[in-house]
Amino acid sequence: MIRARLKGYFETSLAGLTQPTRSDWIFALRTVSAGLIALLAAYALKLDHPQWAMMTVFIVAQPVAGMVLAKGFYRLLGTLAGGIAAIGITTVFGTGPWVLVTVLAVWIGICTFVSSLLRNPEAYGAALAGYTAMIIGLPAFGQPHLVVDLAVARCAEIVLGIVCAGLTSRLILPKLASDAIISRLKRCILDLATYAGGAFSGGDPATLSGLHRKLVADTQTLGEMRAYARLEAPSFAPRAHPVRRTIGQLLSALSAARALHSHAAPKNAALIPVRSELQALVSELAAKPGALDDTSPWVARLDAISVKARQMPDASRDQGDDRVGTITRLTIAADFAEALKQVLRGLDALRAPATRPARGSRQPALVVHRDYPGASRNAVRASLATLLVAAFWLTTKWSEAAGTVILVAVVSSLFAARPDPVQVSWGFFKGTLLALPFAFLVGQIALPALPGFGWFMLFVVPILVPTALAMANPRYVGVATAFAINFLAFLSPHQGMTYDPGPFFAGSASVLVGILLAIGVFIVVLPADPWLAANRIVRAMREDLARLCLHERVPRRSAFESLAYDRINQLMPLVQNAGRKGDAVLGGGVAAVTVGLEILRLRGASQGHAIPSETALSIANFLRGLARELLFRAPGDPQTSTITVARDYAASIAQRNGTGEMLQIAASLRIIAAAMEDFPDFFAKDRS
C-alpha cells in the first residue's frame, strides 16, 4: 500500500502541473474581475495612468487571500516609502542631474541591501521602496515641482489596485490562509506517514529522496502561510505559535524516520515489535480515508509505542555494544512516535485553538541568520547597474533610455536575492517579450478601431484569463506574471486609444533592453553563487550546535526546533535544484535537527541528579570536543577523536550494565556519532 501511494503521489503531482483545478479557475476569474473593476474605478477617478491600478491587481494576485493582503500591505508601505524618498531626494538634489541619479542609485542599493536581509513579503516591500523612488523621480527630472503630484498619483493608483484585489480575494469564494495551513499540514502528515512507511519497509531510495525533499519544501510553505494568516485575520494569532512548534516537530519526525532508514537494525527481539507497530501505524494512517478527522486513536497508539520503545530491553538478550545499538534505535523510534504525536496535536490546536498561556522566563535566543555578505553584493550590484545606465542616459540624451534605467533598477533590485537571479530575470524577459505582440494587436490595431470598455473586455479577457490560470501554476507563475504586468504596461489602457506605433515600439524596446542589461549585470558584476550563501547558512547551523554545546543556559527544545526549521527554510531554495549534492546538504540539515536534540538531551541529563558527577564532567568534555569539531574541522580533513570518543564511551556504559538513564546517554552519543558519519562534510567547517 505504501509503495502504491508513493508511486501514485508522483503521478498525481505530474498530472496536476498541467490540469487547472477548480480553485485555479476561481483565482483566474477573480483576478481578472478585480483588474477590470480597478481599471473602471481609475477611469471614474480620472487618474493619469489607470493601467497602474489594473497592473497592481496582477502584481499582488495570489491564490490565498492572506497572501494578497500581505503582498498588498507591503507594496503599499514600499510605495509610500519610495514616494517620500523621491520627494526628498528630488527636492534636495533635483537641480543637479548627476547628483540626482547618483543619490537615487545609492537609495536603490540601500533598499536592496535591506530587502536581501528580509523575507517575503517584507523583502518585496523594501525592494519596492528603492525602485519606486526611481519610477517617480525620473519623470520629474528637470521639473521637481511635479514630484509631489507624481507621488500622490502613483500611490492613489496602487492603493486602488490593492483595495480591489484585497476585497475580491476576501469576499469572492475566498481561499483563506488559515484553511490552507490546515489542509497543507494534513497533506504533510500523510506524506510523512508515506515516507516513514517506505523508510521502515526498505522503500526505493530515489522515491524516498524525492518525498523527503518535498516535505522539507512544504515546511517552508507552512512557515510562509503562517505570516500570511496572521495578516488575514487577527484571530489566527493564538494559532501562530502551534504552527511554528508543529513545523519543528514535523522536521524532528522526518529526521528520525530518515535515521531509522539509514541505519536499519539487525534482527533483534526488542526492536522488531516496535518497528513493526510503527510501520503498521503509518501504513494505516497513509491509506485510510479521513484518517486525520479524529487524531485521538492515533495519538493513543503513538503514546503506547513511545512507552514501549523507551523501556530498557532485557540485558540477558542484548549484550555489549549491540545492546547500545538496540537502545539507540529504540530511542530514535520513540522520538519519531513522540514527534508524530506532537504534530497530530498541533493539527488539533489549529482546528480548535486554545488561549495561549503566558510565558515564563525568556530562554536565550539563538541567532537568526542574516546573509550580510550576500546582501552587500546585491546592494553594490543594483547601485552600480542603475548608475551606469543612468550615466548612459545623461550622456546620450536618449529620451527612451529613462525607461531602460527604471527597468534595470527594478530587475537588479527585485530579483537580487533569488538563488538564481539570471534564470528568474530571463523568465521575466520571456514573459515581457511574449506580451509585446498581444499588446500591439489589442492596443494599436483593435481598440483604436473599436473603442469602448465593452470592446476592451472582449479583447483583453480571453488573453488575461489563461494568463491568470498560468499564474496559479508554480511552473509558469514567473513568466505568466511578467506577461500580465507588461501586457498591461505596453497596452496602457485609457479611454481614448489611438494608433501610434512609434512611441509604442520605442517604449517597448527600452523595457526589453533594460531587462537584458540587468541580466548582463547579474552575469558579469559580482555573479551570485548559491553555494556560497548555502555554505554560510550551513556554517550558521554548525555554530548553533556549538552554541548548544557551550552555552550556560539551555534553550527550550521548541526554540531550537523553530530555529532549525528557519535555517532549513533559508537553505531549501538555494540547493533544491542541485541534484545529489543538494540532497546531501538538505539531508545534513535535517540530521542537524537530530544532533541538536540529542545535545539538548545530554545537557539535560548532565544537569540532573540521577547520574554521577564524573559522568556529568565526561559529558561536558565530550560537548566541548564536539563544538571544536563543528567549528574547526574542514571538509576532507580526518575526523577528530570526538566521534570515536562518543562510540567508545557509549560502549563502556553498556559494558558496565548501566542504569536506564546511563543507557539513554549512551544512545544519544551513538545517535550523534551516526548522524555526523552519515554527513561528514555537512558537519565540517567549509574552507571559504
Main attributes of the structure:
transmembrane; disordered N terminus; mainly alpha; PHBA_efflux_AaeB/fusaric-R; transmembrane helix; membrane; transport; 688 residues
Report on the structure:
The chain crosses the membrane at residues 27-45, 51-69, 76-93, 99-118, 125-146, 158-177, 379-395, 401-417, 429-447, 453-469, 476-492, 504-526. It is a multi-pass membrane protein. Its main location: membrane. With 688 residues, this protein is mostly helical. It is 77% helix and 0% strand. It has helices at residues 2-16, 22-44, 51-60, 65-93, 97-117, 122-137, 147-171, 177-200, 205-232, 237-262, 271-287, 296-310, 320-351, 372-396, 401-414, 421-449, 453-471, 477-491, 501-524, 530-550, 557-575, 579-606, 613-632, 641-655, 660-678. The radius of gyration is 29 Å and the shape is elongated. Residues 1-17 and 360-365 have low confidence and may be disordered.
Task: Kindly name the structural category.
Answer: mainly alpha
Unreliable residue runs? 1-17, 360-365
Percentage of residues in helical conformation: over 70%
Radius of gyration: 29 Å
Strand content: under 5%
For the sheet with most strands, the description reads: none
- Shape verdict: elongated
Oligomer kind = single chain
How far the N terminus sits from the C terminus, by CA atoms, comes to: 46 Å
Helix tally equals 25
Average pLDDT metric: 84
- How many strand elements? 0
Q: List the helices and strands in order.
A: HHHHHHHHHHHHHHHHHHHHHHHHH
Keywords: Cell membrane, Membrane, Transmembrane, Transmembrane helix, Transport
Subcellular location: Cell membrane
Protein name: FUSC family protein
Membrane topology: Multi-pass membrane protein
